[in-house]
Records
---
Amino acid sequence: MKILVINGPNLARLDIRDSSIYGDLNYAELKNLIETAATTYGFEADVRQSDDEATIIGWLHAAADAKTPVIINPAAFTHYSYAIRDAAELLKAPLIEVHLSNPMAREEFRHTSVISGVANGTIGGFGPNSYVLAIIAMKNLLSGAN
Ligand code: DQA
């Protein structure tokens, strides 16, 4: 089964972001880890990144039409993009929100997610492993295990 994994702004620049917050993997390595974990759990992951809100909204619309399950790290859009939230609400299959860091343990502006309310659940704070945990959670959701 296909899953769409969407990464928001600045996540393609993990190579120059603070590794004490976001971990040591660059984006290519993160993408590879996600694809490998997805395969392990029987998914074919389409892993994408964009810095552009409209592009992400277009991907969510297509996923809604195709009933594709979605894992999303909306990055900074998490905290203020009502447009991404409204697009995410259109999804027909499960949506899991992920974060590399734990936004709740960081600056106050990161404590609000406008996406969480339309997601099945949120996983954050485990570095790249957040995505692996999200894939496992997605597997369980789709098999009715949780
Ligand atoms: C992030 C957390 C966000 O607050 C931040 O803007 C990001 C990455 C994370 O994965 O920890 O860009 O979503």
---
Amino acid sequence: MLKTMSSYFVRTLREDPADAEVESHKLLVRAGYIRRAAPGIYTWLPLGLQVLRKLERIIHEEMDRIGAQVVQFPALLPKEPYEKSNRWQEYGPNLFRLHDRKGGDYLLAPTHEEMFTLLVKDFYSSYRDLPLTLYQIQTKYRDEARPRAGLLRGREFIMKDAYSFDIDDDGLDIAYQQERYAYQRFFTRIGLDYVICSATSGAMGGSQSEEFLFPCAIGEDTFVRSQGGFAANVEAVTTVVPEPVDASDTAEAEVRFTPEAPTIEALVNVSNERYPREDRPWQASDMLKMVVVVATQPTGEEEVLALAVPGDREFDERRLEAALAPAEIRMATQEDLQQYPSIVAGYIGPQVLGPNSPDRKVDPETGEISGSPRFLADPRVVDGTAWVAGANKADHHVYHLVKGRDFEVDGVIEAANVRDGDPAPDGSGPLITARGIEVGHIFQLGRKYAEALGLEVLDQNGRSQVVTMGSYGIGVSRVLAALVEEYHDDKGIMWPPHLAPFDVHVLLAGKGAELNDAAEKIVHELDSRGIDVLYDDRPKMSAGVKFKDQELLGMPFALVIGRGVKDGVVELRERHSGQVIDVELDKAADIVEEKIRQACAHWNEAADRAGFTKTAAEIAAEVQATKEVNNG
Ligand code: ATP
Ligand code: MG
């Protein structure tokens, strides 16, 4: 392919777009890759499309490698399947909804679990048809509350979404690992740094879910990692539970007067002033921080819950929500607390909570509890630990309140914030927090959608079985922007060679027939060898402007046809290294061709070099083997 800058549909801008905050957004707009059509909605220009197509091709190759098959759904879909899965409601204002002329409800799909489930249901009826993985690369629509950062969070964006279908959990595990491996190969091949983060703690016995995050300061996701290789979303971090403490020497619990101590900090001060300890000062971690919330299940059922964390920690909203999902959480009001006369707001303590509460009643038939709310505490509240807590009496706290001696809990909850330095759950060292951009997500859906939409097949014994599913997404347009975040400098984009819209940018830097002829000859020579050439032939542009554009646009190589031509040399520039060398005009095509071939091969082979060489069958065999070991 040979395109000339004088006719190619591209206009570079000197100024950053007014609404752009992040580099990828600024550069992609300034270099003429994309153009804003509406907030969070972008037009792909020829340059942008070239990169997109190359990314898509690598995705197709990697999907093909694990035996996934491509289909293409419409983006415009009827409401009914989404009603059956309850997502018509669940998605709320994030869904773009519309009507047809007959008044029927439609939506622009935010993701396609329902449609894939129904498609497979249409065709398949036997276990013999499975396993199956289907995927598409397609436009998605979400009316995001805060579309920002250009392609990073769009309201229209491109996603690769794959869905696996299996008769049993073993099959799902295999499909999941194959997809995970394809992602590792994909992100390694395109050269995007990634961290695989556990997205679920497994605490609820849930199925596996992992996110691929591109570590990046402007990322909206926070995750934690350890030196030893642990990485997880904050929601998925489980606390390392300390050993129980021997409390035989701990003093008796004692109610004390603690005026003007509405905060943990004030309580620490009051405690040190009035009731100093002999061994050390009181500190926030001695205090029990309490909160009462109301959890509303999707069914509408409400439950009041009392929660406790050590006083030196905060309640982390996201961890709390994840711990109690799918319930929605809000703070309890005075009204909610009226049913519990022993509870004194601001001075809540565990003595009147939990299974030992004198107020607690348990219905012998249903097991339902009343009189005192369910009480869940941080895992660090282990037997023998002593706390200062509210005394359920205004201006009073209890000291030396020992878990297991003076109070009990109904259960534990992972709702305290995770801090730098906390131990990783797998013992791989202290955790540090970092920020990232979610570029991919793999998720064992299980039978949720198959159940909702009735996808069943007959098993070996002729019995009907609900199919189990996985869903696997890559934010393709987001990945493109993430690549620009990773590969740019203050002058512009620096594409990985195999993803650049053109292999080489040829600049005509000077006037005269001799230069013109030399440039024409070399661009046609390169084109004839199958090299993609962008030729800056613009007669009225200064060499300075052409150089600026070349750096902004970011092709891996540039050939400068300038004064040297009279001596038979041209200049070869490498965008990544900044290296500039003179090459003989006669040999320039050979040299450029070889460099491009080597560079593209180097990047394309990155996954193999990194050791990701297993086939889909080998991955399946490995998953089977681990299962056999685990099952004895
Ligand atoms: P986020 O938390 O960033 O909103 P998500 O959890 O909603 O992402 P999924 O529903 O798992 O994302 O979608 C699969 C992939 O699609 C994500 O991993 C991400 O790369 C991409 N993606 C999701 N929302 C957007 C968006 N608004 N713009 C661009 N890409 C997106
Ligand atoms: Mg989202």
---
Amino acid sequence: MKFFIDTANLDMIKEIDSWGILDGVTTNPSLVAKEGTDTPTRVAEIAKILGDRPVSAECMSMDAEGMIAEGRKLHAIAPNVNVKLPMCVESLKATRVLSSEGIDVNMTLIFSPLQALMAAKAGAAYVSPFVGRLDDIGTRGSDMLAETVGILYTYGFDTEVIAASIRHPTHVLDAADAGCDIATIPYNILKMMVSHPKTDEGIAKFKADYEKVNGPQ
Ligand code: G3P
């Protein structure tokens, strides 16, 4: 499973990139606004850090014509920039055109397998089902993930499923169990995933036993 980080913060991206496990970055208008900058500026900086790894940049236009124009501009920033569109009829129309021009679309704000299926039929390179926001309203986001992956696999779509809106490490586990291609994970969750109290306990014990024989390190 590929790990993307869900942030527009350059320091967080650079730190996780140094771990050697980063496959891409997703941004959205809220994440970019948090950094006090604008999408084209920040996405250009992120694209440079990532080399050929994908970075998602979200359009703000809400009609197909505007999405196509904005998507072309965003993709022109760097070849690894893909275009994020919120699931709706206008985005389906825009996805058909952008994908035919070789511009990858990440269809976002997906909350049902049928939305994902329609986005895949329109040619989306990625779909982003929001598992956390479904959990937030008491529905099982992980069930939607599994159903989405199953349906796209059944019909042979190349569209990659990005588990998004990750609230805790268990969502990453659910994404892996469901066979998602990608999980886009917040910085703090990545930090939580790497550690375990039994690992810390084991490291301390190994150190203590070593030092009994070899003296303090
Ligand atoms: O960036 C897309 C998605 O991961 C955001 O999810 O619910 O944490 O705002 P959320």
